């Protein structure tokens, strides 16, 4: 360690350039990793991401000539397809989500994100209550004018969550009674995000098109031990059976997908994880080659020292390990700086890299989201890989040269 610190003091320019080069490389790799991890890991309130299958709205059309094609799925159609799936632990039905004018009075309000949900919504997503209760099954069946709101709205309108319970809150100028207040949900969580939640209406929009017209989507949660691939196959078989009961129309679910597929892209040949790994390696290898040239130039000044040590019996593996350890100190310093830089970059660009673009959306996220243990493990692994890529070849070359050639000045 004394020798490493001495070398750093003797070569400040090289040390600074090496640390900055490492930091920038690791920062961009960590941004790629953290975007993927934050968008796919099981994070509260979306604690079941790895087991979720999402239906989207689907669309239906006239069988004969593909006319009268419309986006949407009615309450009846959604239940016919998703009820009784053997691989589903829970199925949550959601009505259309809107951005509506909401406030404590018709004269005071803003556009807010409103979701129409059932009771299973609260089983799929872990959104803790702060005050009051959730709406009941009886209120669901009767489609009562009740609403659950987020804590931020409760404080803005009534001063506290407790004071909000039982009060009226206007949604599109229509009064709704507040029965509960939940913790705020960040718009980072695309599926769980909302500011107000209401029971959906089960009444069909229109009775034509064999009752398929509607705006429902569904989230099915696979049972433990059942893969999302198996659950999707069960949904597709159930959809085929439902279509056999229709005479003139056909319902399609082309966007049936897992959470990861929904957040990124769907491909039979390349997964989002593989894509991120390839991109991360490219972001590491290219800078590592540049840093490797800098290190090679720096090591050329030490060939005499290494030749003398070899003459006194030092093994090549010992010398290479020393060179790797010396540069590992700089790499660790660069990794720490790169991790801080990646958090700043992600925080600065969070609304377009991670956010959900609703008006006045709440995008408050905890710093703990970036400080999870798995992130530090990945930082360390990336640091070690970068150090190996940038140092191994120069160290191999410099320790490979014959002793007589070096000491002879050749």
What is the CA–CA distance across the termini?
Answer: 31 Å
Largest sheet strand order? 5-6-11-8-10-9
Give the overall silhouette.
elongated
Number of domains: 2
Put simply, the count of helices is 15
* Global structural class: alpha+beta
Mean pLDDT: 82
Largest sheet: 6 strands, mixed, barrel
Strand content: 15-25%
Poorly predicted spans:
none
Fraction of residues in H or I helices: 40-55%
H/E topology pattern: HHEEEHEEEHEHEHHEEEEHEEHHHHHHH
Number of strands: 14
Structure keywords:
elongated, 15 helices, alpha+beta, 14 strands, 410 residues, 2 domains, six-stranded mixed barrel, four-stranded antiparallel β-sheet
Secondary-structure topology with pairs:
Blueprint (H helix, E strand, L loop, with lengths): L1 H9 L1 H29 L11 E3 L4 E4 L7 E2 L3 H8 L5 E7 L3 E8 L2 E10 L3 H4 L4 E4 L4 H6 L3 E5 H8 L2 H4 L3 E4 L2 E9 L13 E4 L17 E6 L5 H17 L4 E4 L4 E2 H5 L8 H28 L3 H9 L4 H33 L1 H4 L19 H28 L2 H5 L3
Parallel strand pairs: 6-11, 8-10
Antiparallel strand pairs: 1-12, 1-14, 2-3, 2-13, 4-12, 5-6, 5-9, 7-10, 8-11, 9-10
């Amino acid at each position: 360690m004394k020798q490493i610190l001495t070398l750093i003091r003797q070569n400040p320019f090289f040390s600074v350039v090496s640390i900055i080069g490492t930091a920038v490389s690791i920062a961009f790799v960590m941004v790629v990793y953290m975007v993927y991890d934050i968008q796919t890991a099981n994070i509260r309130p979306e604690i079941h991401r790895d087991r979720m299958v999402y239906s989207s709205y689907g669309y239906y059309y006239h069988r004969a000539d593909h006319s009268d094609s419309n986006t949407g799925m009615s309450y009846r159609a959604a239940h016919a397809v998703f009820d009784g799936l053997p691989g589903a632990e829970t199925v949550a039905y959601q009505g259309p989500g809107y951005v509506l004018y909401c406030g404590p009075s018709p004269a005071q309000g803003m556009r807010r994100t409103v979701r129409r949900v059932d009771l299973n919504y609260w089983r799929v997503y872990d959104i803790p209550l702060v005050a009051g209760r959730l709406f009941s099954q009886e209120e669901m069946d009767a489609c009562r004018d009740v609403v659950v709101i987020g804590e931020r709205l409760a404080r803005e309108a009534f001063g506290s969550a407790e004071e909000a319970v039982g009060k009226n809150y206007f949604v599109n100028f229509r009064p709704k009674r507040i029965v509960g207040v939940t913790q705020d949900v960040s718009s980072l969580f695309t599926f769980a995000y909302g500011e107000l939640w209401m029971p959906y209406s089960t009444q069909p929009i229109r009775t034509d098109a064999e009752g398929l017209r509607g705006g429902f989507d569904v989230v099915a949660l696979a049972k433990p031990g059942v893969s999302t691939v198996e659950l999707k196959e069960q949904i597709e078989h159930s959809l085929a059976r439902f279509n056999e009961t229709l005479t003139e129309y056909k319902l399609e679910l082309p966007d049936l997908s897992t959470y990861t597929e929904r957040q990124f892209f769907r491909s039979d040949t390349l997964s989002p994880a593989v894509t991120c790994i390839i991109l991360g390696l490219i972001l590491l290898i290219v800078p590592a080659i540049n840093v490797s040239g800098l290190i090679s130039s720096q090591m050329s000044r030490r060939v005499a020292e290494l030749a003398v040590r070899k003459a006194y019996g030092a093994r090549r593996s010992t010398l290479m390990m020393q060179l790797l350890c010396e540069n590992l100190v700089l790499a660790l310093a660069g990794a720490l700086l790169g991790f801080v830089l990646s958090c700043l970059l992600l925080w600065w660009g969070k609304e377009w890299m991670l956010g959900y673009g609703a008006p006045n959306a709440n995008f408050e996220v905890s710093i703990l989201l970036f400080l999870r243990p798995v992130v530090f493990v990945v930082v360390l692994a990336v640091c070690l890989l970068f150090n190996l890529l940038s140092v191994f070849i120069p160290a191999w070359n410099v320790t490979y040269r014959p002793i007589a050639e070096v000491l002879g000045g050749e």
